[in-house]
Fold this sequence. Notes:
Layout: E1 6-8, H1 18-21, H2 28-35, E2 41-45, E3 53-58, E4 61-66, H3 71-78, E5 91-94, H4 97-107, E6 110-118, E7 136-140, H5 143-153, H6 157-160, H7 164-170, E8 173-178, E9 181-191, E10 195-202, H8 211-225, E11 229-235, H9 239-247, E12 251-252, E13 256-260, E14 276-280, E15 286-290
Parallel strand pairs: 4-5, 10-11
Antiparallel strand pairs: 1-2, 1-15, 2-3, 3-4, 5-13, 6-11, 6-12, 6-13, 7-8, 8-9, 9-10, 14-15
Helix pairs in contact: 5-7
Amino acid sequence: MIHTAIYQLPFDQFAVARPLFANADYEEPFLDSVFDGLMPGQIFTDDPHHPTAALMCRTYDYFVAGDATSLLRQFIKDAPSEASVFQDFYGYVALNEAWQDALIEDHGFTKIPRHNYIYPSTIPPTIDPSQIPEGGAIVEIDGPLAERIDRELNETIGVFWSGYPNFVRQGFGVALLIGQEIISVAFTCSVSHTMSNIGIATAESHRRRGYAVLVAKAYFAESLRRGLMPTWDCDEWNTGSVMTARHLRLKPRTPFTELGLGPYPRQGLTLSTGVWDSATGEGGMIVWRKK
């Protein structure tokens, strides 16, 4: 079948694209969070009812699945500014090699190999109170503290969650404080109805003291209490995170590759203007056609 349009689905029709993402064995909390309606996202497909290819645009990473030769490839290559999603691009994750090769050919992306882990048990980890430094306390991360973490530790809670109110509603996390000083934190980057994904950060002056392991254990306990299996991923080059995963005895899963433009800070996409037209169809679906 030759597809002549791209369809931006309203939320109540996201389910038609879910089978294309169903076999992913990495980043499930990021994917499922959008389908579950827990985190914001947009989904574009090459067919409104029986898609063969799909693009999910959400905070942090964008995901592509299905047929890499579909019209969707041209839509992604053009990155129309009128779609109001490509401006926020950070990286792509392709769910098959064909899409990965296509994205690299079309955009010149750099491959960023990533490790993928899962907590190996339904039993919460044991936390040794003696590991908490004198004067320290492990506290829940609320909205104001999340803002401080982003500002003082250069983290991205607000980016992941499209703002702090959504993090407070759907996410959770813990922080090790000494007085008012933020020492180490563990927080949800994304959450679905079954899994959570953890982000961990430690103030530079307090690293190599086991604090990341401490807050991660506290986070894992809270995640399991909520019925959510914890997952974690990190860049292959990040030896500190790899060692933390080993100390936590996390189970390695299928590694994957993120695609981005250049080293940190990442570059944005080159957007097109006036190349694609859109019209609102039945049920709020937006139909995109190339001029």
